[in-house]
Amino acid sequence: MANNIVLVGPMGAGKSTIGRQLSSKLNYEFLDTDHIIESRSGADIPWIFDVEGEQGFRDRETSVLAEIIDRDAVVIATGGGIVMRPENRKLLAQSAKVIYLMASIDQLIKRTFKDKKRPLLQVENPQQKIRELFEHRDPIYREVADEIVMTDDGGTRSIVQKISEIISRS
Ligand code: S3P
Q: How many structural domains comprise the chain?
């Protein structure tokens, strides 16, 4: 089992921001599956969805996850849909700790308001989409997670502090 920390949760939960700060607090390297996919392909996520479809993006996501999941001393921020493939869930189980960064639907809607970078939210009613995705995915985030951390209240620093306390006592 790799000695790393993986952050899962919906779009707008703060996985990248919190992950980056957590990694510097722990003196770990920070990896972000979305960023790796973008830098490897030389294109941004909307472009990948356009050209290769969601399936193409998901294939890239699985291969990046498979490649980095056994790294030690890293914090890995993942894309909100990574938990959907059973294959990815198996890979996530190889991590020492999977943390579900949770937020209320209201907060998720606020934090993704007018987002242009997330293809799944470029629909007529993004708020409804956030709700649907949450209802569908929340049980799966819970299933893969070792810990659940609520991100609605307090700033990034206090959430990072909370996570590092959880890690140090386990
Ligand atoms: C997705 C979430 C995004 C990104 C892609 C698909 C999803 O990542 O991977 O747009 O299916 O929820 P964030 O959760 O970092 O926004």
A: 1
Residue 65 alpha carbon to ligand 1 centre in Å: 14
Can you give the CATH number for the domain in which 122 is found?
3.40.50.300
Residue nearest to atom 9 of ligand 1 (CA): 79
Query: Does residue 138 fall inside a structural domain?
Result: yes
Residue 165 belongs to a domain: no
Look at the pTM and tell me if it is higher than 0.90.
Answer: yes
Q: Is 76 in the pocket of ligand 1 (CB under 6 A)?
A: no
* pLDDT mean values, one per 10 residues, the chain (170 residues): 93 98 97 98 98 98 98 98 98 96 98 95 97 98 98 95 93
Is 99 within a domain? Answer: yes
Note the pLDDT of residue 134. 98
* Residue whose CA lies nearest to ligand 1 atom number 3: 79
Show the beta-strand stretches assigned E in 115-169: 147-150
Write down the pLDDT at residue 170. Answer: 80
The sign one gets for the Cα dihedral 158, 118, 48, 82 is positive
Q: Which two tokens stand for residue 71?
A: 């790294």
Q: Is the CB of 80 under 6 A from ligand 1?
A: yes
Q: Which domain holds residue 150?
A: 5-158
* Residue whose CA is at the smallest distance from ligand 1 atom 16: 11
The C-alpha atoms of residue 31 and residue 16 are separated, in whole angstroms, by 9
Which pLDDT score is estimated for 169? 87
